[in-house]
Amino acid sequence: MNFSCPQEELISSYKRCRKIGIDPSITLPLVILNPEDLQKKIHKNKELIEAFHMSVEEDWVKGEYLFLLTDIEGYLLDVRCNTEEKKCIKDSGFEPGVSFREESCGTNAISMAMRLKREVYIRPKEHYCDIFKKWHCIASPIIVENGEIVGYVDISTIDKKIADEVSMVIKLLAEKIATEYEKIVKEKELNKIKIKLNDSQTKILALEAKGYRELDIAEALGIDK
To answer: Would you list the domain boundaries of the chain?
Structure first.
């Protein structure tokens, strides 16, 4: 499965980066949320983060791969990886709240997945900024049942080539996160409905479901129609 970024899209991205004046030699991302805005983002996307944690297997985290989750705007929400790799990305400035948009860190897999709305693989030399020149990255939108994109997931390696099978893993991982996310959202919505209904309302709904008429329900429960 070929998720390589088309050459014309890469060239267009480089042009945009030059136009907005990004220095290719930057060593840290340029855009990061302040702590208050980051907490708001995390709260808003708590179901997505929960789904991400449920979907990334513990055995994967022990390996050499980095798993990154962003919201729909490209802000980093969470990272899963081993301790050694976590230190490596922290030294590069990639902590929750960092933006992966072009204006923050140039051409990268997440920014291109956001633009193309599909899986994208970016090799080290294809990145615009030096900050990514050792990174192999493959990113995918997380698409729920109604076709809405709720975030992006990225699998990366530093100084190591990504195995061919990861192109299939990213697609399956994005689908798994989307499925878990929808389950969590639906479950929370059902719980809200249950909380809002009092005992009488629950009994009324149960009788309505059995085909009872309003008058019969009122009589059976001893309440006014």
So the answer is: 7-174
pLDDT digits (tens, 9 = 90+) for 50-61: 999 999 987 776
155-202 confidence digits (pLDDT tens)? 998 888 887 778 888 999 999 999 999 999 988 887 766 656 667 677
Q: Measure the CA dihedral 157/159/165/170, to 10°.
A: 20
* Spans of the chain, pLDDT less than 70: 1-2, 61, 83-92, 192-198, 200, 217, 221-225
> Using CA atoms, how far apart are residues 65 and 59, in angstroms rounded to an integer?
11
> In 3D, which of 178, 144, 187, 139 has the Cα closest to residue 55?
178
Query: For residue 30, which amino acid is it?
Result: L
DSSP 8-state secondary structure symbol assigned to residue 99:
B
Those residues whose C-beta lies under 8 Å from the C-beta of residue 177, and which sit 6 or more positions away, are: 48, 51, 52, 55, 69, 142, 151, 153
How far apart CA 31 and CA 11 sit, in angstroms, is: 23
CATH superfamily to which 7-174 belongs: GAF domain (3.30.450.40)
Q: Which two tokens stand for residue 121?
A: 């693989």
